[in-house]
Structure formats: structure tokens, C-alpha cells
Amino acid sequence: MTFEPADRVDAVPPSGIRRFFELAEEMDDIISLGVGEPDFSAPWAAREAAITSLERGQTSYTANRGKRELRERIAGYETERHDLTYDPDEEILVTAGASEGLDLAFRALLDPGDSIAVAQPCYVSYVPGATFAGVDVVDVPTRVEDEFKLTREVLEQSGAAEADALVYCYPNNPTGATMTGEELREVAAFCRENDLVVFADEIYADLTYEHDHTSIATLPGMRERTVVFNGFSKAFAMTGFRLGYAMGPPEAITAMNRVHQYTMLSAPTTAQYAAIEALENCWEEVEEMTSQYDRRRNYVLSRLDGMGLDCFPASGAFYAFPECPWDDASEFAESLLQSEGVAVVPGTAFGEGGDGHLRLSYATGLDDLKEAMNRMESFLQ
Amino acid sequence: MSSRREILNLLRENARYTTEDLAHMTGFSESEVETIVEEFEEAGVICGYQAVVDWSAVDTDEERVRATVELNVALDRETNYSDIADRIGKFPEVTSLRLVSGDYDFDLEVEGDSMREVSHFISDKIAPIPEITQTVTHYIMESYKEQGMTFDDHDDDDRLSVSP
To answer: How does it assemble (chain A) (predicted)?
Structure first.
């Protein structure tokens, strides 16, 4: 026997972002609007809590589900911020990033041959994650005319009614779209009527600029059929800590924990100490970062408008998703990178519905953002 | 649309934002931004614009010496804190002057070309003021952070250049 990728691994193509990463890495002095993580460092108090925990020698495993103190704080935070009520003992699982949580859900809550509707364009891990779990994917492409919101119409048209589960992310990466509670109602109704469970990736929940975030799990009849995923990477700028959590009914969390305990054992301990501090003392920093993103969002949208590029008013996360002026977004992105040294990611890297668009991340200082916009403007002329 | 206060926040962050930048970030038009800034200037809300300089990074032999000085004063019926502040604040060597709570009354910052110059200024101009009963001078040896800006090697962006 030699090493060959297993069929379900072989079935997943290499990431569309990878090629751009390699191109960009070869070049000097590029300005990248292609980064999917905050440009801020984690709040100092959180970093210091991590250091202190190391100094105290707190380097052992934690409970499989995560430190109780952390789960309690997560429960309190989710109640206060998002009106969600979960029991820290039974209904919260601390994971190595929200990504681990999603992988656990695919494997622990779906069987091979089940199918999952994936709202697209979306974060790059959903389709591969489902494929690794042997789960069939139903593409649900959202539309620019709906401002990339999920609607009953696209769910019906794509055949999502036959699926066992739905996964989506709002506020959305890559589009920056958000959904109000009212808009989520029809999605919730569709899922109840067709008996779908929902995996709601809410990792950008606290980065909204037009209205507060609403979780689908707060809508009638949805709590029992939803697993919510969140974490510390985006709002708290703690990507490298690799810490997220999943919240759901006890039976879902128990099943996910069964996989988690044999694979991850427990989420990184140092990160858990940092996260406890983040929830307790770092809210001001989060608000400051959010107001910075909002200024940059206004700046980017206004500049894109000035260049004559159509861009719906992205209202969450830290992405703008303008229409690409060329037919082939990959070709445009490559050409922009090579001639102007500005990296953006073609929407096609995020699946169906991303075609013909570009993802511009504004998790970049205003000086660089301005320079990138200037270069893009001169490239278009 | 942002508030007028947002213009202040932005200028506090970077006073060199252009009118155009401010307009893009706030949703005001450029002429609105200009009007708002002028109004703030006229009302004395915006008192000036200054660079935050790390003198230790300036490649020159010229020395900049700064000291903070604790001042104790004795008031009488004719003299209040503002009268004394008026007098002290007029010296160009004084870069900041604040009335503070605690063991002393005024906290002032003084800047000069040499320690000698600063010492002479304190002993010849400040200490002799009749209401001043005591001065304690602290020379600043090293500045790490001024007006919210940390003086260190700029953080390199160590993020991957493109990530999902």
C-alpha cells in the first residue's frame, strides 16, 4: 500500500485562495485586501491573561467541554449580547475555533449520504467539511439583487427542502451581508416546514454596522433545531488563539463532544484563559475596533462608488463585495495584483454566487486602504 | 451619516486626514466637513494640530529636554488657581499645565534645549513666583508612549497575505 489521498479527500479541490496566496507571497510591497482576519492584535488584557496563566503553570488539559468558568462567561455574554440562553453544563462546547465546531457538527450530527444546504458564497470550509463527512452538498447561491441574503425563494429553487440541514454565515464572509430578524423569519419558517436543522455560523455577530445581530436560534421553534457557532477570532481579534464555541440543545452538544473528546480532547488551555479575560474586560477594545471597521467600511464603499463599481452596502464583518468590472474575476484579481501590487480575492473562491465579484477586506489600516483604493482607481482608468 | 463628533474622533486619531478622507469615512460631503472643522476651530473646540514626535528617533545632536514639575501653591483672597495658571502658562517653555488632585496642586511640563536651560527656567522663573511654595522637578529620561502613540519599532503585519 502506498499513500494516496482517501477518495473523500481527493474529492475536495485545493483551496481557490491558495493560488492567490502563492502569487502574492512572491511579490514585495503588496497591499493586501485579501486577508480574512483582523489587523489588530488581541486586546492586551487578554494577551496578558494568557501570559499569566503560563507563568502560573496552567498548562494542562481542561475539561473536554472547556473550562467551566469560560462556559459560564460565554453563556452570560451570549445572553447579554445576542439574547441567547444556553446552559453552560449541557449546551456549550468550547472548540479550537468555530471551524472545529462546524467540522464536529458535520460529523457528529449528519450521516454519510445525508445532505446539507450550503448558502453561498460562503467561508471556504463548509463544502470541504461536509465532503469529508461524506455528506452531500446542496448549493444555495444567494443573489446580488437580494444583497446576498438568504431568501425562501432561493432555498426553494435550489432544492434545499430535500436537505437534512442548512449551514450559513451571517454576517457573511465574503460578502459582508447581514440579515435582520425579520429576514431570518422566512428562513426559519422554511427550515421548520421542511424539517431542516440549522448550523448558524455567527462568528462575525458583533461586527455589524447598521443593525444589531439577531440569531436564528432566538426565533420561535428554532432553538431546538439550531446549533450556533461563535468564537473569539473576529470581534476580539484572537484568530491565532484558535478558540471558538458551539451552542445547541444538549443532544447535539453531547454528540459533538463525543467526537471532540477523542480528536481535540480540549481546546487550547492558554487560549481559554485569554478568552475568560476577553469576555470580562475587553469589551471597550471590541467597540473601538468595531468603530474603526465602520469608518473603513464607509471609506471603501464611498471610494468604490466613486470608481463606478457597483457594490451593495455591506453591513457586517469586514468585507466589501463589489461587482468585478471584468467578466473573469480571477483574471482581474491576478492582473490587479501583478500590475498594481494590490491583492483582492475573486468571489469564485467562495463558491457559487460569488462569481463576478471581488472580496475586499478592510481589516487593514486606513493608510494602506487609501493607497490600495488609489491604485485600484488608476488601474481601472 | 456620522455625527459631528465623529469628525473630532477622526482628527484626534490622525489630524492629517484630508477633507476628502473625512468625507469618505463619515458620509458628510467635503464642504460639510470643511464647515464642521471650521466651526470647531472657531468655537475653540479644536485648539490646534500637532505631530507626536519621538525626539529620540531624530537623527541629530540637538538635545530636547523635558521635565514634569510638581508645584505647590498658597492661595489668598486675591489670588486663585486660575490667576497662577495664567501667569505660569504664558511662558513658552511650559508645554502643558494642569491642576491636579493629590499631594501637589499643579502638574506642569517644561521643555528646553538642555537640562541647564530647564533648571534655570524653574529656579529663575517659576520658583520665585510668590504664591509658589514648593517645586519638585522630574526630568524625563525616556518616553515610551505619548498621546496614545507607542514609541517602538512599528509592528510588522505578520498575517498571511491572503487568507480565507
So the answer is: Homodimer.
What is the model's pTM? 0.92
Q: Which phi and psi angles does B149 have, rounded to 5°?
A: -105, 130
Residues of A in contact with B10 (CB under 8 A): 295
Show which of residues 69-98 on chain A sit within 8 Å of chain B, judged by CB atoms: none
DSSP for A349-378?
GG-TT-TTBEEEE--S-HHHHHHHHHHHHH
> For chain A, which domains are there?
7-42+284-380 (3.90.1150.10), 57-281 (3.40.640.10)
d(CA A107, CA A104): 5
**pLDDT tens track for A170-181:** 999 999 999 999
Task: Tell me whether B14 touches chain A (CB under 8 Å).
Answer: yes
Task: Say yes or no: A34 contacts chain B, CB-CB below 8 A.
Answer: yes
A37-79 pLDDT, tens digit each: 999 999 999 999 999 999 999 999 999 999 999 999 999 999 9
ipTM attached to this prediction: 0.84
- On the question of pLDDT at A326 being above 70, the answer is yes
CATH of domain B55-142: 3.30.70.920
